[in-house]
């Protein structure tokens, strides 16, 4: 895992979702693995003063069009959720809790969460929705409920967000390859070139 | 020219420069022409509240790296100018003045201006630099000097900026194809697909 790609994202980020459907296969073609790192853009934006894309004047209207068109371009199913953006701390904390037990289960949970939000329109800010998604991947309901009510998973996510900001993460997706940062799903072709050539 | 692409940019925009080196050849492959429309991002940002990319916390540092890497990716020569960003009203007004007389001369002036800034590091906010660039394309020094001192070219550029904002332009490059808006040089592959398929 030493040369693994680091993939930072917020579960509420459309471009993060699009990247999540592509990044593993891209890395695998070059014998690389990917460390998934959910973060909270709300925490990052408090640091940077940025606003959610869809709330920015003019850019907001454009971005709704661009989310859907970029999904079509990449061949990824996408329906813009009625409730958007939404809080993703339950989902992110659940991811890290699962990850400590079973990496594959955490990855499956992440895909299921993104897809339930961006394909089925589920409210992934709702704790019961998140618990259900986790249990369908095999998580223990009682143990996870208890963990999400306690301080440990909160501290873990807080620490991950702070570490991400220290690394320069300012948005989603933000992908680090061999120390080189790439922001946006539209940088996947540059990441591919980087992996092919070992930098460019 | 009815189905021409509309290419909005600021002469101080690195991604606008990169797009300027690619957009005509891309359009030409599909039998399309391109209308170049320099604008002032400062005027647009007053409307939207946005800040220049390089001044945004965290994103600023990243963007300097991304300008140069995106240029390498696209095979376009690029040296980040020492003085950046800078005011481009003289360059934009000169463009429109030339365009009323000779479209090809205006296009050549635009390329020369971008390249002098992003390859040679010239100060294209300086009126004498702009006059020199225009005269090297064949402009009449006295007529242009007089025009730039008068109200007509100022009104023209003001009108172009206002019209751009009404069309939703919030950054550079912003390219409209068949009514569909594309923001960023990283959208060129989507524009290519659009031109190939007549939409997607």
TrEMBL record, chains A, B:
It is an enzyme of class 5 (isomerase). Keywords: Isomerase. Belongs to the GST superfamily. NadH family. GO terms for molecular function: 2-hydroxychromene-2-carboxylate isomerase activity; glutathione peroxidase activity; glutathione transferase activity. The active site is at residue 13. Gene3D superfamilies: Glutaredoxin. It comes from the Bacteria. Residues 5-193 form the DSBA-like thioredoxin domain. This is 2-hydroxychromene-2-carboxylate isomerase. One of its GO terms (biological process) is naphthalene catabolic process. Pfam families: DSBA (PF01323). It catalyses: 2-hydroxychromene-2-carboxylate = (3E)-4-(2-hydroxyphenyl)-2-oxobut-3-enoate. Its EC number is 5.99.1.4.
């Amino acid at each position: 895992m030493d040369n693994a790609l680091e993939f930072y994202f917020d579960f509420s980020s459309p471009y993060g979702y699009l990247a999540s459907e592509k990044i593993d296969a891209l890395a695998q073609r070059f014998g690389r693995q990917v460390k998934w790192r959910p973060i909270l853009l709300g925490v990052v934006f408090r640091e940077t003063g940025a606003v959610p894309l869809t709330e920015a004047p003019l850019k907001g209207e454009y971005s709704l069009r661009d989310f859907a068109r970029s999904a079509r371009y990449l061949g990824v199913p996408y329906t813009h959720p009625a409730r958007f953006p939404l809080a993703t701390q339950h989902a992110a904390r659940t991811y890290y809790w699962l990850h400590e037990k079973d990496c594959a289960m955490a990855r499956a949970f992440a895909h299921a969460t993104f897809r339930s939000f961006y394909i089925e329109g589920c409210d992934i800010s709702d704790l019961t929705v998140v618990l259900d998604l986790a249990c369908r991947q095999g998580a223990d309901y009682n143990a996870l409920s208890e963990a999400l009510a306690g301080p440990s998973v909160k501290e873990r996510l807080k620490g991950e967000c702070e570490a991400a900001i220290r690394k320069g993460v300012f948005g989603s997706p933000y992908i680090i390859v061999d120390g080189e940062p790439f922001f946006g799903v539209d940088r996947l072709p540059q990441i591919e070139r980087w992996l092919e050539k070992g930098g460019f």
